[in-house]
Every structure is written in structure tokens, then in C-alpha cells.
Amino acid sequence: MGKLKNTGLIGLGVVAGIAVSLQFSAMAQKSVEPALPLEELRQLADVFGLIKSDYVEPVEDKKLLTEAISGMVASLDPHSAYLDKKAYAELREGSEGKFVGLGIEIGVSDDGYIKIVSPIEDSPAYRAGIKAGDLITRLDGQPVKGVSLEDSVKRMRGEPGTKVTLTIARQDEPQPLSFTITREEIHQKSVKSKMVEPGYAWLRVSQFQEPTVDDLAAQITALYQQDPHIKGMVLDLRNDPGGVLQGAIGVSAAFLPKDAAIVSTNGQVAESKQVFYGSPEYYSFRSEGDALAKLPAAVKNVPLVVLVNTGSASASEIVAGALQDYKRATIIGTQTFGKGSVQTIRQLTADTAVKLTTARYYTPKGRSIQARGIVPDLLVDETAEGDGLNSLRMREADLQKHLSNDRDKESAKAAPVNDEMEEQLRIMALEKNSKPLEFGSKDDFQLLQALNHLKGLPVKLAKAEPVVVQADVKKDSKK
């Protein structure tokens, strides 16, 4: 059955989102190895030999063995993967919050071009004069219409010092504009903020990276410098696909009492059985100083709303779950993605690694979010007319081979199954009539409802209850 993947003007062009809670480790193997399955290994060797001798054309040994490793890891669950040189480099770039490129946040416009959401301050694109709202129509003379956003991002990235030419359509400019921009290493800010109304602040975390806690502290400090008497704050985690675990712990710790338990994990190996607390040793990447130490004291008690949606996954769900368990914030929006597993990076060579699911994580009250997600305290659709495209996005429970929820004892109802053609027509109609939402804008319906809640005004709730799908309920079964 067709479902939409997460879309929207969320900075997809800056760095691919990492919808996992990552821990980097080079843990030694267990001292006692289990006996090897010799019969199956012989079969593998036999198949390898058959391909080498009988396949229609020669195949390199390295390709066969690499694909065998990749297939073995990918068969476990949707989030385990073999990382070749390119994939491993991209993952490290994303977690470190830096990459080589132009420095623009992009989305897709209504007519299929690349829309500039915002140039990153002091980036090559920013210095060249690229503006929010510009449309990229060509890259190095090649049209972008009809090209996937992912492929366009790849074309804009490259080696430091190399150049790329953008053809830009700008409102009020009669002729296309041409910009030749030199690629540089970009340091992306994963947190941004603004005062949306007098007394009310908006704080958005687009993904959880190594610098996220430092960025969050700087943004909160700046907000309180603008208004020392903030009446309410909105923490926006919509379409935040996750990232490094330390970032989630630090963001939670900023709003919770000192040393509060944030999340626990449990898996097969000893290092996966842990409780993580809101103290610097759990969220700091550097030994010197605590990024949260100088936050205004008021941030611990300021009325807080957390906005989530189907695109809020993994580390986002850790934050929402912790703040919900402690009743520190009101969670508003739609049911989250439901990714409650931890991936650990096991380095194989200098350039390759395995991303392996090693644990499930649990909220402070012991809830597992795996294949279920966070259900908001107040269910609010993406727009006043309904949840639109958000209702069609994939969830963890839709993914093949997803982990079960080991603590889910509640009865669950299966999602209704529609005729595939009927759903495809529904998707097409919604795509045609929907515009990508820019979070934090004056048209942001969920943000307006969050502000209403902080002010004690009525909130327009969603008409439909969330559909909770238990991990062992098959989506194609009919009741």
C-alpha cells in the first residue's frame, strides 16, 4: 500500500536526517564466541563459487562479499545497515553538524523547482546573495525540475574549493539570475529560535547533532536576553528525525530538574543496559564545561509546549517522552513515528562500519515507544482542515521487519485497510491541494494552537483519535 515518506520545508538540503539514536562505540567482542554454523558457511562458500564460475559475466570478489555483508545486516531490521565509505562519511558529517556544500536549507516548490528556505548565515550561498524564497531552476546548466531532492542535494555537495553554478528565479526579477558559488565546509546550526509574539518564544530543533546542546543553550540565552519575562515557550520537534543520543539527553535536561533520569536502554550486551541522566557526563561531547550551566533559571519552570508529528522520531521521541512523563510540558500535535531503538556504530575499517540495532529505549516511566510512538496530550492536526499529508506518512509500524514493542501489553486495533487505488487517488488529491508547511510561520496552525494553550485559550483539537498499531498486528489483515 502506498504511503508517503516525510516531506516538507525542513532543511533537507543541508544534511540528510538521521532517524536513529546513535551511539558510537568500538566495543571489543565478547570473550566467548559461539560456535560457528559450519554447514551454513559451507553453503555460503558454495554459492560464492557458483556465482564466480557460472554467472553470465564476471563479478568482483569484493562486490560479492560486500553485498553479502550488507544483506546480512539489512535483514535484521529497518535501521541496521552496512556503511560503505560514502555512507559512513555522510553519517559522520550529519552527526557532527558539518558538511561540504553551499549552505542552504531547501525544499520543493509547488511547481517542482528547488525552493530556498533559508541560506545559512555566513555560508558561501549567503555571501553570494542567495535569498529565502529564491527558486533554483538549474544546477550547472542542467534542469532540476523532475529531479529528486536527494539527487539535487548530491549535485550541490562536493569537494571543498570546487564550484557549482545555480540558475535562480527570483520574484520581481524579470530575468533568471546566475550565481557561481565555491563549496566550503558548512557548520550547520540544528537549533533556531525567535519570539513569535511578545512574551512567547519558539525554539526549533531540526535534528540532534553533536553541537545541538551548545546551540540550544545559546538560543535560549538569546531569547531571555530579548525578553527576561518569557510567559511561555514552544519546543518544536516536528519532522525532527532524531540523531545522537547525547543531544536528546541535553535538550531534555535543559528543562528538567538537575540529574533527572531521561531515558533507559536495554539490549543483549552489558553496555546497552543503562540509565541516562540529565548531567553533563551524559550529554557533553567535550570534557570542559557544561553548556547548560549558565542557562537562565526561569527555563526550568517556564510553561512549555512540545510540538510533534509523524516525522518526529527516535531522539525526538526521547525528549517528548521524558517531558511528558515528568509532566513538564504539554505535548501537542499528532502521534509520533514510533522508533524506540538505539543504533550503535561499530567501525570495521578506517572507512567502513556497521550501524547495528543494539537496544530498545524506554521513557523515565518505563514506556517503550517502539512501533507505537508518543501520543500527544492534545491531538491537533497539521491544518484547520485536517492532518493532510502528515496522516499518510510512514510510521515505524509500517516498516518491514520492525522490532516489536516488548512492553506493550495493551490491546491494539489495526489501522483500517483501504483499497490501494483508492488510497493512491487520495494521496494525489492531497498533494495537488497541499502546500509545504513552513514551521514557525504565521500560517503554522499547530504553532498557533500551542500558543493558545499557553495563553489559556481554546485549542482546536483533531477530530479523529490516533490509530495505535501494535507491533505484531499485520497491516494487511482485515477485521
Automatic annotation (TrEMBL):
<dbReference type="Pfam" id="PF22694">
    <property type="entry name" value="CtpB_N-like"/>
</dbReference>
<dbReference type="InterPro" id="IPR005151">
    <property type="entry name" value="Tail-specific_protease"/>
</dbReference>
<keyword id="KW-0378">Hydrolase</keyword>
<dbReference type="InterPro" id="IPR029045">
    <property type="entry name" value="ClpP/crotonase-like_dom_sf"/>
</dbReference>
<dbReference type="GO" id="GO:0030288">
    <property type="term" value="C:outer membrane-bounded periplasmic space"/>
</dbReference>
<feature type="domain" description="PDZ">
    <location>
        <begin position="88"/>
        <end position="157"/>
    </location>
</feature>
<keyword id="KW-0720">Serine protease</keyword>
<dbReference type="InterPro" id="IPR036034">
    <property type="entry name" value="PDZ_sf"/>
</dbReference>
<dbReference type="GO" id="GO:0004252">
    <property type="term" value="F:serine-type endopeptidase activity"/>
</dbReference>
<dbReference type="Pfam" id="PF17820">
    <property type="entry name" value="PDZ_6"/>
</dbReference>
<dbReference type="GO" id="GO:0007165">
    <property type="term" value="P:signal transduction"/>
</dbReference>
<dbReference type="Pfam" id="PF03572">
    <property type="entry name" value="Peptidase_S41"/>
</dbReference>
<dbReference type="GO" id="GO:0006508">
    <property type="term" value="P:proteolysis"/>
</dbReference>
<dbReference type="InterPro" id="IPR055210">
    <property type="entry name" value="CtpA/B_N"/>
</dbReference>
<keyword id="KW-0645">Protease</keyword>
<dbReference type="InterPro" id="IPR001478">
    <property type="entry name" value="PDZ"/>
</dbReference>
<protein>
    <submittedName>
        <fullName>Carboxyl-terminal processing protease</fullName>
        <ecNumber>3.4.21.102</ecNumber>
    </submittedName>
</protein>
<comment type="similarity">
    <text>Belongs to the peptidase S41A family.</text>
</comment>
<dbReference type="InterPro" id="IPR004447">
    <property type="entry name" value="Peptidase_S41A"/>
</dbReference>
<dbReference type="InterPro" id="IPR041489">
    <property type="entry name" value="PDZ_6"/>
</dbReference>
